[in-house]
Amino acid sequence: MFTLELDHLAVVARTLEEGTTFVEAVLGAEMSSGGKHPAMGTHNRLLSLGHDVYLEVIAVDPDAPRPEHRRWFNLDAYDGAPRLMNWICRTDDIGAALENAPAGSGRQLPQTRGDLSWTMAVPEFGRLPYDDASPALIEWSGGMHPARRLPDHGFRLSRLDVFHPRANDLLADFPALHRLPQVAVREGPEKRLIATISTPEGNRILA
User: Fold this and answer.
1) Are the CB atoms for 44 and 56 separated by under 8 Å?
2) With the CA atoms of 69, 8, 149 and 92 taken in that order, what torsion angle do they form, in degrees rounded to the nearest 10?
3) HEC per residue, the chain
4) Is the N or C terminus of the chain more exposed, i.e. has fewer CB atoms within 10 Å?
5) Which among 114, 118, 120, 146 has a CA at the least distance from the CA of 50?
6) Under CATH, what is the fold of the domain 5-149?
7) Domain spans, the chain
8) Which pLDDT tens digits describe the chain residue by residue (207 residues)?
């Protein structure tokens, strides 16, 4: 049996500055520097949500060459306001997790950023199943994890609601999602992610 746990949330944006300004205004947070993803042509900034969960703002890196494959999180096609678009689950066996995930959840691509290394399941056409309501899958290498390096400002994820018109089909396609205590996959009129985050100044909603 493979493990499955919530790893991080991804706010996508046209530019890193635009996405960072959005998150900091909503949460009253100061995001930390992240880094660049050479294989994907993206860069990010990060915020700790506890020991093993974090939030990232991710955008196309304008200084990076365009990769030969589609970027993750559908960033090649994204042109809207910053938005909480994706959620990422970590596993100890990404191959087994993919076998039990919905079709189209991606192929395994090794990634590095500095001394961090991981394998990510990246969908061929940029979007994950169920209009990106299905989580991306990640397996970290060597026991390293970004959240453990980030300053802890007291922000915590209280709840993630994942809405989709076919939520029951998603749960049937990926039964392991039932094992995630902080996550509720629920039926709604459209795909939408809503995170309730506890901050030093009270709960804030990021969507």
Assistant:
1) yes
2) -80
3) CCCCEEEEEEEECCCHHHHHHHHHHHHCCCCEEEEEECCCCEEEEEEECCCCCEEEEEEECCCCCCCCCCCHHHCCCCCCCCEEEEEEEECCCHHHHHHHCCCCCCEEEEEEECCEEEEEEECCCCCCHHHHCCCEEEEECCCCCHHHHCCCCCCEEEEEEEEECCHHHHHHHCHHHHHCCCEEEEECCCCEEEEEEEECCEEEEEC
4) N
5) 146
6) 2,3-Dihydroxybiphenyl 1,2-Dioxygenase; domain 1 (3.10.180)
7) 5-149, 156-206
8) 899 999 999 999 999 999 999 999 999 999 999 989 988 999 999 999 998 999 999 999 999 999 988 999 999 999 999 999 999 999 999 999 999 999 999 999 998 878 888 999 999 888 999 999 999 999 999 878 888 899 999 999 999 999 999 999 999 999 999 999 999 999 999 999 999 999 999 999 999
Residue identified by tokens 């990926």 is 174
One-letter amino acid identity for 21? T
Which residue in the block uniquely carries the two structure tokens 């395994």?
A: 108
